[in-house]
Request: fold
Amino acid sequence: MKAVRLVQVGKPLEDAQIPVPEIGASDVLIRVAAAGICHSDAHYRENISKIDNLPVTLGHEIAGRVERVGKDVTDLAAGDRVCVHYLVHCGHCEFCRRGLEQFCRSGQMVGKHRDGGYAELIVVPAKNAFRLPNEISFEVGAIMMCSSATAFHALNNARLKPGESVAIFGFGGLGFSALQLARAFDCGPIYVVEINSAKLASVKTLEAIPIDAKAGDPVEQIRNATGGKGVDVSLELIGSAKTMRQAVQCLGPLGRAALVGLTAESMSIFPYAELINKEVEIIGVSDHLASELPALIEFAHSGKLRFPPEALRVVDLDAGQINSALDALQDSIDHVRTVIVPKS
Ligand SMILES: [Zn+2]
Ligand SMILES: [Zn+2]
Reply:
């Protein structure tokens, strides 16, 4: 079968012909119908995130049709439409038993530690394949499995309750999903902090409140807009110490800051004035849980989470086209997502 693989870090991905993977008793073989091209794939290619088991087929945002099932698989059959949870976990360690598989000691990420979806076919354990309703396209099913799932996990970790106000720092793919999902939680006002004017304009069309960080301190702007109180929940989706600090400072009493963006910088706060006095919480967010995916898929099914067709661009399963898409991702400022749709 055809696959597009990372053979050497720092080099373009390569077209390859590899054997169709073997399936185990509890696995499913899926014919890939759509595979999202993600920022993390660009990071693997550039060696910003390390991969040490090369060559490997990238791609962790996957939807398709079940082609064949292992002999122990009873809840899926050939022809079923599915999307893929990208964390393959052991299922029996102390974390897996508690449903916290992102901490599994032997966990593997699809498209990093094992072959991913930039291919005609992929094998995953059946427990990683979630039914995709007919009304959700394969393209949307694929891209939901990464940034939308993580945005959802951030809101769950922050324990967002109906009516509570939210500040979102950064309006990329995560922010776009986070805004819609926060609304699906029936939240109060949503403030979106950005510096990009096109993104700030799109915040307005989504009926949230744009906060232009270039026009002045976003913390002060949020305080003014909330009558001095601050917000109940903030999400930091950028990955900078500066905006992480702002995400803590903009909270009101009992507020929760969920930090999602990645950075190697250290961050400082004033413990008494900014944390203890207000009993606020700073919460780390990493990936998402399999148990969250059915609710996420239902939000897409009911139209609460939407990706307008103009936000999707399609390329072939072709190394040249995929490399160009990865190049373009580095400096993209829009919400357009590129999805690989292999020609059948
Ligand atoms: Zn991704
Ligand atoms: Zn485990």
The first strand starts at residue 2 and ends at 6. The chain is about 30% helix and 25% strand.
